[in-house]
Amino acid sequence: MNKRILLSLILVNMLIIVLVFFLPLFKVFTFSDHRSDHPKIYYILMEDEQAFEIRYVHSIFLSNVFEQYRVTPRDQIQFLSMNYEDVGIGLPGYAEQGETLTVEDGIYTLTFENRVVDSFVLFVGDVDADLAFRYKGEEVNLKKHLTKGKSYLFEVERISLYDMMKGVKLNG
What we know:
The chain is of the alpha+beta class and 172 residues long. Helices cover 18% and strands 45% of the residues. It has helices spanning 2-22, 142-145, 161-166, and strands at 26-32, 41-45, 51-57, 64-71, 77-84, 99-104, 107-117, 119-123, 131-135, 138-141, 151-159, 168-169. The radius of gyration is 21 Å and the shape is elongated.
């Protein structure tokens, strides 16, 4: 009888270990090479902070652009605002419906009322200009980890310990 109890305990523990290993328990920001037959997941562990930022140097104006986002309670991505110094190609000089544009000390701030998406595609350009992901006071150089000339699907999702082991952690 003791052998049965011991065997049952071992099986239950193994089942718990397998579940923990494969259950999507970890909330992360992911960059997936979605055009590949064998997509690789690059991820940044998400903690309690919901806000993040993408900073890049505009390829033509060679000035910094800051895009601010936050993660909604439903794990969607809300585009809050963007700040930039130059107007033109990809950097508007006017606001459209649901947007507000202000200019202060030569910095344009375009604010969005309610622009929420499940994901977006991030293109990593071939130009040697900065592309960084900022979260909790830390900045990750995306061009150091992601392949130039490729596009990546960016989203917030939950992944398992197994997925984490297969993927590439970009922070910490």
